[in-house]
């Protein structure tokens, strides 16, 4: 599609814990998409891994979790680790590269986790954060809103790749979002 615009950006991170100001981010993946058109910018996806940033640490429960059933994915992340300041600058540049008529919308599942971590890292490296909090979109809340119910239903969408590989997670989250939009746009929502 000529002049396709992608104002939506799905972001997923993998971390060393759950505390945005103290735990480390070890992988960032982001994919631009257009929710209205249900299209994905497959030509330029962001997928980089980060070495542990200064003054960040592991939560031992998270370290054990990675060393358990997620060891294969963790080893793949470790093989690709780069200086975190380089990755954060690259992510900022990637985020700002394509211009749209609308502000960039930062999507995540849940936004409270990924947005907070990314904001913390941008502060740590004194970089302009290209995502405004007013345009942060929580995938779970969006789907609950479509349904008109506080809870959201689960969608049976095939997962391709490895769970907890941030790029695979991002692509899966976009597929779920598109499936939910299809169902609710077509009036297939059963609120009973």
> For the record, what CATH class applies?
Alpha Beta
Give the overall form: globular
- CA radius of gyration is 17 Å
Q: Report the strand count.
A: 7
Share of residues in helices: 25-40%
CATH superfamily: Ribonuclease H-like superfamily/Ribonuclease H
Written as H for each helix and E for each strand, in order along the chain, the element string is EEEEHHEHEHEHH
Number of domains: 1
Second-tier CATH architecture: 2-Layer Sandwich
Task: Characterize the main sheet.
Answer: 7 strands, mixed
- Label the structural class: alpha/beta
How many separate helices?
Answer: 6
What value does the average pLDDT take?
A: 93
Poorly predicted regions are none
Strand content: 15-25%
Distance between the termini: 39 Å
CATH topology heading: Nucleotidyltransferase, domain 5
Oligomer: single chain
Brief synopsis:
Helix content is 39%, strand content 18%.
Characterize the structure shown.
It is a single chain. The mean pLDDT is 93. The protein has 192 residues and is of the alpha/beta class. The chain has a single domain (8-185), classed as Nucleotidyltransferase, domain 5 (2-Layer Sandwich). The longest helix has 20 residues, at 166-185. The chain is built from six helices and seven strands, in the order ββββααβαβαβαα. Strands 1, 2, 3, 4, 5, 6 and 7 form a seven-stranded mixed sheet that branches. It is 39% helix and 18% strand.
């Amino acid at each position: 599609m000529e002049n396709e615009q992608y104002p939506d950006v799905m972001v997923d991170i993998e971390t060393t814990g759950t505390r945005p100001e103290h735990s480390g981010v070890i992988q960032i993946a982001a994919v631009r998409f257009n929710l209205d058109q249900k299209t994905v910018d497959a030509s330029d996806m962001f997928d980089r891994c980060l070495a542990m940033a200064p003054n960040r640490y592991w939560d031992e429960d998270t370290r054990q979790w990675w060393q358990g059933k997620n060891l294969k994915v963790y080893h793949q992340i470790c093989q690709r680790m780069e200086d975190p300041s380089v990755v954060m600058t690259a992510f900022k540049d990637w985020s700002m590269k394509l211009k749209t008529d609308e502000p960039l919308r930062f999507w995540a599942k849940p936004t409270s986790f990924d947005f907070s971590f990314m904001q913390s890292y941008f502060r740590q490296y004194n970089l302009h954060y290209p995502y405004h909090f007013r345009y942060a979109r929580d995938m779970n809340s969006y789907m609950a809103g479509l349904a008109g119910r506080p809870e959201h239903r689960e969608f049976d969408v095939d997962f391709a790749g490895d769970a907890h590989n941030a790029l695979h997670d991002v692509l899966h989250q976009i597929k779920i979002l598109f499936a939910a939009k299809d169902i609710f746009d077509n009036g297939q929502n059963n609120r009973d």
